[in-house]
Write a structure and sequence with these properties.
Two copies of one chain form a homodimer.
Chain A: H1 4-11, H2 15-22, H3 30-43, H4 49-56, E1 61-65, H5 77-92, E2 96-99, H6 111-118, E3 122-125, H7 133-139, E4 145-148, E5 157-160, H8 162-175, E6 181-185, H9 190-205, E7 215-217, H10 223-234, E8 242-244, H11 248-260, E9 270-272, E10 289-291, H12 294-310, E11 319-322, E12 325-327
Parallel strand pairs in A: 1-2, 1-3, 3-4, 4-5, 5-11, 6-7, 6-8, 8-9
Antiparallel strand pairs in A: 10-12
The structure holds a DNA duplex (30 and 30 nucleotides).
Chain lengths: 336, 336
DNA sequence: ATCAATAACGAAATCGTTTTAGTTAGTGTC
DNA sequence: GACACTAACTAAAACGATTTCGTTATTGAT
């Protein structure tokens, strides 16, 4: 590998001058600067990041913590899209992205230790169990951290506005005349709680008495669980006219159940999802859902994180809420 | 940050001794070694990767090149699963994974230059256009490289065995009595060519005359294209009894078309996909498809790459073929 | 001519490791 | 007691950049 020393020798100057020329310091002549830059290019010089990082403490490397337990991480459309958008934004600003090692390697380091070890300048955390001691250590640490869909006091976070999203979805459903609305919600998390809150509020707004037997719980993306619970809902003496699924993917389970009972969507029963992933719009009928703005969530996370790194003193908006968008598919029937 | 110097001072020894103790060199006393390791731990010492890399030229960082043009990268189930598996394997061996920057940042470096700059020790390449000059530069470079689903002479690659996979699928379809088989194949690539080869071979094996009007082309994962082509196939005077889609996801388009013509799967027409992603098994009816072994593909890619890095002299198997597995769903009807 | 200011460059220290080549002290042998 | 060995440690030179503090030469003002 050709180093600054080589370039310096070639140009007959010192390494200091080469460094300054390449970094556009003011105290190097216009002539020399051009010559040095040109020979560096010609010789195929590439700066050595390790050496630079050693001096400057800057690695221009961001970490992304993202646990994929049982296929629900990288192969999870919602989070994958967020990551993709995060990546694009960060790269445009000159940062690279490294996965935070989570399969606890031989050295047995914690997330935090691993981030320090790897020299990551900031971390975005998404799609993990935020309540493990290890996760908490990282969130509370001195490293710049941005969390996605989870709010920790005093730390910046970017989240989908589930309160508003579910409100819009519910108002649409109620506006279509539905009064018997079932909600198969996801496992407990701030996301789930926000959506539940809106679910009950809108019911109240419309003067609808909430019914316990209409509210069930399944894991996100669990098609089998949602399928099973749908059967239960369909077997109710007074069955709902609309079923809200935890998310678009699990809605597939709901759809299976409905179809195998010989019912049609939306003629016999309405079904809605949440997320707005591509899948939801290629189903027949097109699913009514709330599209979460993953582009913006990813982009804002990156911007926030980088700003945190580059101007540590700045007080930042601590909680960024990104609104979703109601997608009126064809899976909700107008009643009455 | 606490460095070796701090640990050395605390223990009253030299940095050299600390380094040797921590790296288990033989010429440091058992007593001292234990003491040093213990104080290092107690003081929260973490090795500085940049400094180490500067000396040893080892970063324990692998690159993954993976272009996500128009949502077909990270949000692509097949490749996402491969990456996930690659990641797990590599991390278990002490390596971290960094995305190779592909959105050409301000410095305007090529893939290769970026890899060198970032100090990546090896690269796995998947899901990109292998025929760009930039990609070729990287593939032909002196960096350890493993390609997925693409074979370049003399360089190691890991690929799904599409020849065998399509053969099994076709033999199953023919075995079910189908003779009028349409194939909507993907855009040209070695994967597509392998599958086409098997498609025609099995037709020949069964003495079936290939019919041009049954062979169409759509982009992978393009539901709309597949939907449109399905209409064309259904409108044929002598329409096929079975349609092979480019992949599971695009099969959704095919299914839409079939359903909106009022036809049923598999009673009126059989439909099969390829990939075996989760989606395919939660559809109604469950899709007949070929499950590609993403776990193995990812794992072998990582093993191959790391072996290439750690024992550069070793001559390795240059092309690793990973067999898939026929998944007999419910979407192919038995004829006759 | 003198002095201060500036422009353009270089020497050398530094970042935190690794590693080579010693050095020192202790042990065993004859 | 002299010798060779070994065990256990250290000093110091890298690695490739950045950056501080000089140094020198030139310019402009007086």
């Amino acid at each position: 590998m050709v180093s600054m020393k080589d370039v310096a020798k070639e140009c007959g100057v010192s390494v200091a001058t080469v460094s300054k020329a390449l970094n556009d310091y003011s105290d190097v002549g216009e002539e020399k600067r051009r010559e040095i830059k040109e020979t560096a290019r010609r010789m195929g010089y590439l700066p050595n990041l390790s050496a630079r990082a050693l001096k400057t403490k800057r690695t221009y490397n961001l970490g992304i913590l993202f646990v994929d337990e049982a296929q629900s991480g990288l192969t999870h459309d919602y989070f994958s899209s967020i990551i993709e958008s995060f990546k694009v934004t960060a790269e445009a600003k000159g940062y690279d992205i490294t996965f935070v090692n989570c399969s606890t390697p031989r050295h047995g380091r914690s997330y935090y230790e691993h981030c320090r070890y790897r020299g990551l300048e900031g971390i975005v955390i998404a799609c993990i169990d935020f309540y493990t001691p290890e996760a908490q250590e990282l969130i509370r640490s001195d490293l710049p951290v941005v969390t996605v869909d989870y709010v920790f006091d005093g730390r910046p976070s970017v989240a989908s506005d589930n309160v508003r999203g579910m409100r819009e979805l519910m108002e649409y459903i109620c506006g279509m005349g539905h009064r018997k609305i079932a909600y198969i919600h996801g496992l407990d998390s701030s996301t789930t709680r926000d959506r539940l809150t809106s679910f009950y509020r809108v019911l109240a707004d419309y003067g609808i008495e909430p019914r316990d037997e209409y509210v069930r719980q399944a894991a996100y993306r669990d098609t089998e669980g949602t399928e099973r619970l749908t059967y239960e809902l369909l077997d109710l003496p007074d069955r709902p006219t609309c079923i809200i699924c935890p998310d678009d993917f699990s809605a597939l389970g709901c759809i299976r159940a409905v179809q195998s009972r010989g019912l049609r969507i939306p003629e016999d029963i309405s079904v809605v999802g949440y997320d707005g992933i591509t899948l939801s719009q290629v189903l027949e009928p097109r699913l009514t859902t709330v599209r979460q703005d993953t582009r913006t969530i990813g982009r804002r996370s990156a911007e926030e994180l980088i700003s945190l790194i580059e101007n540590p003193r700045t007080t930042l908006a601590e909680k960024i809420l990104v609104p979703g968008e109601l997608v009126r598919g064809e899976s909700v029937r107008k009643l009455g």
